[in-house]
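User: tokens in, sequence out, please.
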């Protein structure tokens, strides 16, 4: 037994702290719990990718991330650690001889207890940050390793464009990583050698370095300068994407001054780097320092000052002639990069006077003119077809076309989706087990309406009823689906999922259903249930008896988000649209491949280019593309998402896109050939809206193909603001899908269209005359695996520069100021009804340009909905306004347009004929404008007084106000006899109320 004074006893600390076993246990449990939660997040991701059949995406992506993290960690941490380690291991041992050295010794003593930890921790933290940065660039590295040649060379260096798109970003990434690693290593070496005595500042002899410090610093600085030389050499190629000149890309000054200077300085930097290696051997730092200063001065003069002088004194005085070739390079590259180099441009001198029979040659286009505005009729669909409050329709509906009995019809279509927030009883069981899906689609003819102004539905009701073939109506995957639902049931068990309301099911009021597809990972096992309970932080998933061995959990259900997750290299169009295809509801999406380094091309910010009045008013339905800048884009993939089971099919749409071909090497089994697309699916493919928005935005300038004209900028255009929105809103008018036949086109086709007006002057002034009209052939045909030859053809009508054809804003203004139009609109506004202008369509027909705008009336009240009551038409300065498009066209074209509109023969119960006008003037009816306006004002005041009297309960006052109203109406009829005709046909106001919702949704 040891005595208190024994050596063993003496070595033990006197006051050693005792760690609590409970504390250690709690810390261990907390660490394990956090680790398990993190594991479940990864595990559920694995289950999702495996279930959807794209495990290769998850494996490849995370394997690449892991390797790059490791590489980034090693590249950064090892050099920093090595610098610290060498500085300490080769530290000199000496006795301090000066007060400064004595103070430094105190610092060394203070940091010595932390030295070992710091030597490992500092490089580890730096390496961790570097690894995270490197792993985030997994796509850049994979593109580099699998790059596909473009087959065309750039205009400056004569290199295949794949070098700039795929290789250069990878080299840039490596240069940045290595350069930062060497810089941090140099800083670490300087600090460590100073602290450990390798660098000793003297009072008389300057700084003294040990041999180790001399070697380490000399070689490290030499490597740093060598890497910077390489980065400077690569920066020459970066000038191909520079936006600092008159146009993006290399300019005259770059070509003749900056690029040669950068090459010379890069070569000089290599020599200076070798000089530092020599210094590490010989120890003469003066020559190296002088050479470095000389290099910096040389770089400043040759790369900055000299090009600035060339620009100022040589280029600016003769800029148009000297920059002409470079501007042309930019024009050609931009048109190629954004895929509109083959645009069909047609000079078009439109007529501004509507002649009788002018639309005879445009009969097919006239019959197809769309009257339903998909941005306005959502509430109409909701009130007429919602059925129960727990169903919903999107705010912005979609436009497609369907072949009904051999007749191709433009269609406004929407899915009747589940609205989770509208379920009355928000219990977990209801949200996760009962209310799981929507039901069916609702589709209406785009060019027709019922006599009361309601749409004419070609597919409606629950169960589905109409002209579509039978299809699977259940919608488990959609734009408003719940975050997750648990579906599936045991054999023979009673269905739990609400299918649809019904009065025929033994008094229960509903039909139930059990999901029978393969739409999500299994949660039949205890471990999976626990994993998803942690993922969604919802213990009910683990505890509920509704979860059984056959249960699946459906999540990632929004079509756009679902596709984006499984194909992260694509940018997905902001407007997925539904179609009934091959007996199923399919969401159709467009996928874009993009690049940021296409040489000489003008970059576009995708979010800005795809913003318009629709994305502003319906952001939850129609999204913009990401806020990223690209200078190359292709609609390379067409995608479908099955609304029932969520299965995703991606088809290679652009076989010649090198970016897509590169990603198909990375994920070889992900994308199918377009030859596998069915004819039914092909018939619903349309030209993508977001690509068209990007192209039309660039075409405001790049419709000019001559460098000299481009330089002057006198023929630049701009996109019109949406005239149906508030004045000065600044919101761009959206493009419109419609069926039309462009001048010179043999047949009409489903197209996507937009218009142009002159660009604003430098003082901000603008004219709203039409200068151009753009259309894209959006019809891919209906043959299996074969794309119509005309699909994607862009056609641009260029109007004369001195044109007087009204633009959309002027056309809307003419509508708003025409006296006869306003008189009739005032009648439509009676009874607190609201008049809503529909989308203003532009069509090149009749040798000119025709504007068509539906006019909706919406009564007051929460359950009101807009009804199509009249149509406005303008051709030049002539205006037509009538209950039907057919009548309005006849008004404009001398009483007989020569063609029949889709709503011909529709009897209007909501208003009579309204006269057209010529140039916004009087309709020739003999009406006394002043008397009529006074009568209408008196009628309005009498109606207001009537309402006030009713609220006060003063029936005597109410009777007097009604007498005044009667007299005012008689005066109005005397001033304009056509009002009597309007009244005889039922009046112009919309119904006061709409059908109320049926029952609650429980």
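Assistant: Sequence out:
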């Amino acid at each position: 037994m040891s005595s208190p004074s024994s050596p063993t006893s003496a070595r033990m600390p006197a006051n050693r702290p005792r760690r609590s076993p409970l504390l250690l246990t709690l810390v261990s449990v907390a660490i394990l719990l956090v680790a398990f939660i993190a594991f479940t997040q990864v595990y559920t991701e694995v289950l999702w990718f495996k279930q959807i059949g794209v495990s290769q995406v998850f494996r490849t992506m995370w394997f690449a991330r892991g390797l790059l993290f490791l590489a980034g960690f090693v590249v950064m941490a090892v050099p920093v650690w090595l610098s610290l380690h060498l500085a300490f291991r080769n530290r000199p041992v000496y006795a301090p001889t000066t007060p400064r050295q004595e103070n430094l010794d105190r610092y060394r003593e203070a940091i010595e207890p932390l030295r070992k930890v710091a030597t490992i921790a500092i490089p580890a933290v730096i390496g961790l940050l570097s690894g995270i940065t490197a792993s985030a660039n997994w796509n850049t590295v994979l593109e580099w390793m699998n790059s596909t040649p473009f087959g065309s060379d750039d205009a400056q260096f004569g290199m295949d464009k794949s070098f700039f798109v795929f290789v250069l970003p990878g080299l840039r990434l490596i240069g940045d990583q290595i350069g930062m690693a060497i810089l941090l290593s140099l800083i670490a070496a300087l600090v460590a050698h100073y602290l450990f005595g390798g660098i000793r500042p003297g009072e008389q002899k300057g700084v003294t370095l040990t041999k180790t410090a001399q070697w380490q610093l000399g070689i490290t600085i030499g490597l740093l300068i060598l890497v910077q030389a390489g980065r400077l050499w690569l920066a020459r190629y970066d000038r191909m994407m520079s936006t600092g000149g008159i146009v993006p890309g290399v300019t005259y000054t770059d070509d003749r001054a900056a690029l040669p200077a950068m090459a010379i300085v890069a070569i000089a930097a290599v020599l200076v780097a070798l000089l530092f290696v020599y210094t590490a051997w010989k120890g003469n730092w003066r020559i190296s320092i002088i050479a470095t200063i000389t290099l910096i001065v040389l770089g400043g003069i040759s790369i900055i000052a000299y090009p600035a002088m060339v620009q100022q004194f040589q280029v600016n005085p003769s800029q148009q002639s000297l920059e002409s070739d470079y501007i042309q390079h930019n024009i050609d590259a931009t048109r190629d990069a954004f895929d509109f180099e083959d645009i069909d441009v047609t000079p078009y001198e439109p007529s501004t006077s509507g002649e009788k029979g002018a639309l005879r040659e445009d009969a097919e286009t006239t019959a197809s003119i769309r009257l339903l505005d998909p941005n306005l009729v959502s509430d109409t669909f909701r009130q007429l077809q919602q059925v129960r409050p727990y169903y919903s329709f999107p705010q912005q509906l979609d436009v497609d076309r369907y072949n009904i009995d051999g007749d191709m019809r433009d269609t406004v279509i929407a899915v009747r989706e589940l609205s989770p927030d509208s379920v009355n009883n928000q219990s977990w069981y209801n949200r996760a087990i009962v209310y799981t899906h929507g039901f069916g689609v609702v589709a209406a003819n785009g060019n027709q309406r019922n006599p009361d102004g309601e749409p004419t539905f070609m597919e409606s009701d629950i169960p589905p009823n109409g002209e579509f073939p039978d299809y699977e109506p259940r919608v488990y995957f959609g734009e408003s689906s719940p975050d997750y639902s648990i579906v599936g049931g045991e054999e023979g068990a009673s269905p739990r999922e609400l299918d649809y309301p019904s009065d025929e099911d033994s008094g229960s009021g509903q039909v139930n259903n059990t999901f029978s597809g393969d739409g999500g990972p299994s949660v039949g096992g205890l471990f999976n249930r626990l994993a998803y309970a942690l993922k969604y932080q919802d213990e009910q998933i683990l505890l509920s008896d509704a979860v059984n061995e056959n249960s699946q959990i459906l999540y990632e259900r929004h079509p756009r988000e679902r596709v984006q997750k499984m194909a992260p290299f694509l940018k997905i169009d902001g407007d997925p649209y539904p179609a009934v295809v091959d007996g199923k509801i399919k969401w159709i999406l467009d996928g874009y491949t993009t690049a940021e380094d296409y040489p000489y091309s003008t970059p576009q910010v995708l979010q800005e280019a795809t913003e318009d009045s629709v994305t502003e008013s319906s952001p939850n339905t129609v999204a913009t593309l990401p806020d990223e800048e690209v200078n190359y884009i292709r609609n390379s993939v067409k995608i479908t998402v099955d609304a029932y089971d969520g299965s995703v099919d991606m088809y290679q749409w652009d076989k010649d896109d090198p970016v897509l071909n590169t990603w198909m090497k990375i994920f070889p089994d992900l994308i199918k050939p377009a030859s596998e697309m069915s004819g039914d699916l092909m018939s619903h493919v349309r030209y993508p809206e977001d690509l068209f928005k990007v192209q039309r935005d660039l075409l405001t300038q790049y419709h000019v193909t001559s460098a000299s004209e481009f330089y002057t900028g006198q023929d630049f255009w701009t996109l019109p603001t949406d005239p149906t929105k508030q004045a000065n809103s600044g919101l761009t008018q959206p493009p419109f899908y419609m069926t039309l036949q462009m001048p010179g086109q043999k047949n009409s086709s489903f197209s996507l269209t937009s218009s142009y007006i002159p660009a604003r002057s430098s003082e901000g002034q603008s004219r709203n005359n039409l200068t151009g009209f753009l259309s894209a052939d959006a019809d891919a045909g209906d043959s299996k695996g074969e794309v119509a030859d005309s699909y994607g053809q862009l056609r641009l009508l260029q109007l004369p520069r001195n044109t007087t054809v009204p633009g959309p804003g002027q056309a809307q203004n003419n509508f708003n100021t025409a006296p006869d139009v306003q008189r009739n609109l005032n009648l439509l506004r009676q009874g607190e009804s609201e008049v809503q202008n529909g989308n203003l369509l532009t069509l090149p027909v009749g040798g000119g340009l025709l504007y068509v705008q539906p006019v909706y009336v919406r009564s007051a009240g929460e359950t009101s909905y807009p009804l199509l009551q009249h149509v406005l038409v303008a051709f030049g300065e002539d205006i037509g306004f009538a209950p039907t498009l057919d009548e309005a066209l006849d008004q404009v074209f001398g009483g007989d347009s020569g063609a029949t509109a889709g709503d011909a023969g529709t009897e209007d119960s909501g208003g009579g004929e309204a006269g057209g006008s010529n140039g916004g003037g009087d309709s020739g009816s003999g009406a006394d404008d002043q008397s009529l306006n006074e009568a209408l004002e008196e009628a309005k005041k009498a109606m207001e007084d009537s309402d006030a009297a009713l609220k006060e309960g003063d029936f005597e006052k109410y009777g007097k106000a009604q007498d005044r109203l009667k007299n005012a109406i008689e005066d109005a009829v005397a001033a304009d006899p056509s009002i009597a005709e309007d009244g005889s046909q039922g009046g112009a106001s919309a119904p006061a109320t709409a059908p109320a919702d049926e029952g609650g949704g429980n």
